[in-house]
Amino acid sequence: MNNLTTKLLRFSPRRRNRQKGVGALEVAISAGLMIIVVAIAVDVTILNYAFSVNDAACRDAARAAASCSYPNAAAAAAGQANAVTAAQTACRMHTTDGWLITLPALRSTAAPDFVYDDHYGFAPPPPQTAFTTVTTFVDVRLPIPLFFMGNSASGMLSATGGKIRFVRRYTFPIVRQNYTG
Description:
Radius of gyration: 30 Å
């Protein structure tokens, strides 16, 4: 074949149309993959935000509960109830939308999820310290359910109603300047 025939075959309309079809196929595949990547990014962003809200709420609730210190043993009897109220109030300060991410709440007001050990206003023995432990949780619904091989990522969590639960626990010391004895 001569050079002219080779050039004509290279630029034939049939070959150009085939290249346009490949370009359309690339755009379709890229768009599909981009939708999946954006869906995963949205879900991960919501999960990250839920974790940070729960972390901040638990830390603030533990700090609020630890700030309930009492000067003597008679007043310390009400310490546990007041510490629970202070922790619940601190949790309410962290607002969310309430549907995608539920409001942070105390997991329980009993041990081991909530402990207020102030030694009834007395100084604890030397290796010990007065402390409070608070456990909070938030439930998260994924805004964009992802499907893999017929299974939904949020549907696999059927035990919690399709929600993901983040649980966080903090322990803070109860600091006093003077103890009664």
